[in-house]
Amino acid sequence: MDETPPPDSLDLYRLPISLEALRATPQKARRIYLLAGHISNEMNELHRLAAMTLRKHNNLTMDLIATGRGWMILRVLIGKTYEAFQFVEESLKETGEFYRDYLSGPITDDTCDFLSPDDRASYGKLWARIEAKRGLLATIRNSYAFHYKLNSSLDRALDTSLDQGLDTGLEGLDASWDVSSYSACDPNTPEHHSRHAGFHGSSEHVIVRAMLSHVAQTDLAEAMKGLAD
Amino acid sequence: MDAAGEVTDFMGLVMCSILIKHDLLAGQKGSRILRINGVPSLKEATILPLLRD
What we know:
The complex is a heterodimer. Chain A is mainly α. Chain A has helices at residues 19-24, 27-53, 60-93, 97-103, 117-121, 123-131, 134-145, 152-164, 201-212, 220-228, and strands at residues 10-14, 181-185, 196-200.
């Protein structure tokens, strides 16, 4: 496996964890380890699912529906990111004990040979970057990802789209989001009219626009970049 | 999406710290076991099709 890897490849590493060693670990560290792994699993898979969904399709309608699906996954991912933030703050930072015992001490070559020196030095900076996004994550988590709220942000988003249109100003992307509703039926099922799946473009558009309005950018294209960042 | 990646990285650091301190590898070492080809890169993801006509 030493040949030059193609650009679309991933290397899979295996760390042989021992359940006996895990059971012998102090209770608090054991719980944190298990929950951190669970959080990491969810975030990784949602992230990858969003990335796979947001790939360009050949059919514009499928492109539209896939993009809507991508936004749905992205909203859940944002909500989960905020929950992970809360987990760290409440379980790790509040007590101070975990930080003192595990993260505040230097990680040296003797104790860790698979993190780069930059990685070892960067967790404080990393957390500061996450912390700076807390407000935005909380708003999206509370208003769009995990709760449904009938509030004025929907009216404002609709008004904005009617007033300003959907032009992003981005070269090559010159107009509008299709706000039609779509219904999919199985043609081989006699009662297929009752077996349908739908996608409602107007709802998704207004929700996405309302969500993007919370990003501190006035330009829609910049707002989208800000949210993606 | 970057924030999600950063939180995941942070979780990785937390887990590594526990793993090293309590030797959850039980003296064994990690190793590369597989190279998977044809995996879509996360960098290919774009939210811009939202605005396609």
